[in-house]
């Protein structure tokens, strides 16, 4: 997979997290570091940076001194009591006096497992350092948060995404239109892993990647089509809006929640009164809640469009 192929192997390759990289480099220079807590959305470099840290500390022997576990797969207390503790109690190989344990998605750990992890972090500080990664830091108990240096990762901006696209385009000999690059940025939402997966799917179809190919492969409607639906509702044309939305939904194979998220994003670009836009956003939230609860998506989407028409009448 391209996700593995283009995974950075050094700090210089990591995009969009310059402040974090600068702080981590200081730890490498001192040949010591505290426990670390990485937080932020998916696909922005948390796991990658952990691997780079291990390679910088341990060199060729990094695999023997680095344990990677995904807490969402093994989230009970036994994983902390057995796997983590067994690895932590042995000394590291080489000059660095500690090993590194990387716990990915640790916000999936049960509270009992987190309490056990808290004690393990205390007892094996001399022989082991922990790097914890999560999407939602509020799910990590306070005693663990207070033992870690916190690093908040941010989604990659457009310039960083375009740099990655251009690098892949050059290495893989793929022609990518400028509009396709903008589309890739939109569908990736700052997630590098999603970007590479969508681009790989597009490249499998053709060596010339276009905007249409990107939206089709990502199962995302073009923003222009969603905006056209909303403009029909603003003009009071419910039947046209309903037909256009249904066609878009079927053409791209979208679910109701996918469409509502795209609708919510396009509402801000409408040329209507600000108060009406706020009311429309409020209705999007209500419709999404009903879909999550199991309501029929076609009925809820029609109801949403009808509310938009009534708000703008």
Description:
- With 313 residues, the protein is α/β, with parallel strands linked by helices.
- It has 3 domains: 2-152, Rossmann fold, CATH 3.40.50; 158-217, Helicase, Ruva Protein, domain 3 (Orthogonal Bundle); 223-311, Zinc Finger, Delta Prime, domain 3.
- It has helices at 2-5, 18-30, 46-58, 77-88, 111-123, 142-146, 158-172, 178-188, 192-205, 211-217, 223-234, 238-252, 256-267, 274-292, 297-311, and strands spanning 35-39, 66-70, 99-104, 128-134, 148-152, 175-176, 208-209.
- The strands form 2 sheets. The protein has a 5-stranded parallel β-sheet with strand order 2-3-4-1-5, sandwiched between helices. The protein has a two-stranded parallel ribbon with strand order 6-7.
- Helix 5 (111-123) links the parallel strand 3 (99-104) and strand 4.
- Helix 4 packs parallel to helix 5 (111-123), helix 13 (256-267) runs antiparallel to helix 14 and helix 14 packs antiparallel against helix 15 (297-311).
Annotation keywords:
58% helix, Helicase, Ruva Protein, domain 3, 313 residues, 5-stranded parallel sheet, alpha/beta, 3 domains, two-stranded parallel sheet, Rossmann fold, Zinc Finger, Delta Prime, domain 3
CATH topology of the largest domain: Rossmann fold
Number of strands: 7
Figure out the total of helices: 15
Low-confidence stretches: none
For the record, the count of structural domains works out to: 3
CATH homology superfamily name of the largest domain: P-loop containing nucleotide triphosphate hydrolases
- Architecture of the largest domain, according to CATH? 3-Layer(aba) Sandwich
* Global mean pLDDT: 85
Range of strand content: 5-15%
CATH class of the largest domain: Alpha Beta
> H/E element string?
HHEHEHEHEHEHEHHEHHHHHH
Query: What is the overall shape?
Result: elongated
Provide the structure class.
alpha/beta
Helix content: 55-70%
Give the neighbour order of strands across the main sheet. Answer: 2-3-4-1-5
Radius of gyration: 24 Å
End-to-end gap: 51 Å
Major sheet size, sense and barrel closure: 5 strands, parallel
Which oligomeric form is depicted?
Answer: single chain
């Amino acid at each position: 997979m391209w996700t593995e192929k283009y995974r950075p192997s050094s700090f210089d390759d990591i995009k969009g997290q310059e402040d974090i990289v600068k702080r981590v480099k200081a730890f490498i220079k001192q040949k010591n570091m505290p426990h670390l807590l990485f937080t932020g959305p998916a696909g922005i470099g948390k796991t990658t940076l952990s691997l780079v840290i291990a390679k910088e500390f341990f060199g060729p022997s990094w695999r023997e001194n680095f344990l990677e576990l995904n807490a969402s797969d093994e989230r009970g207390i036994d994983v902390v009591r057995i796997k983590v503790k067994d690895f932590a109690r042995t000394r590291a190989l080489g000059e660095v006096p500690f090993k590194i344990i990387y716990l990915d998605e640790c916000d999936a750990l049960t509270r009992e497992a987190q309490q056990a992890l808290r004690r393990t972090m205390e007892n094996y500080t001399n022989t082991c350092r922990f790097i914890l990664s999560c999407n939602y830091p509020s799910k990590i108990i306070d005693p663990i948060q207070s033992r870690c240096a916190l690093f908040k990762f941010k989604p990659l901006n457009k310039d960083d995404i375009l740099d990655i696209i251009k690098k892949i385009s050059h290495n893989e000999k793929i022609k990518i239109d400028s509009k396709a690059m903008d589309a890739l940025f939109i569908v990736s939402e700052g997630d590098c892993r999603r970007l590479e997966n969508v681009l790989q799917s597009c490249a499998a179809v053709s060596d010339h990647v276009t905007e249409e190919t990107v939206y089709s492969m990502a199962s995302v409607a073009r923003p222009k089509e969603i905006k056209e639906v909303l403009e029909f509702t603003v003009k009071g044309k419910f039947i046209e809006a309903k037909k256009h939305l249904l066609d878009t939904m079927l053409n791209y194979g979208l679910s109701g929640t996918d469409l509502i998220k795209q609708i919510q994003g396009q509402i801000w670009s409408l040329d209507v009164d600000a108060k009406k836009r706020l009311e429309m956003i409020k209705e999007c939230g209500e419709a999404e809640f009903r879909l999550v609860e199991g309501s029929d998506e076609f009925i809820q989407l029609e109801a949403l469009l009808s509310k938009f028409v009534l708000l703008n009448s």
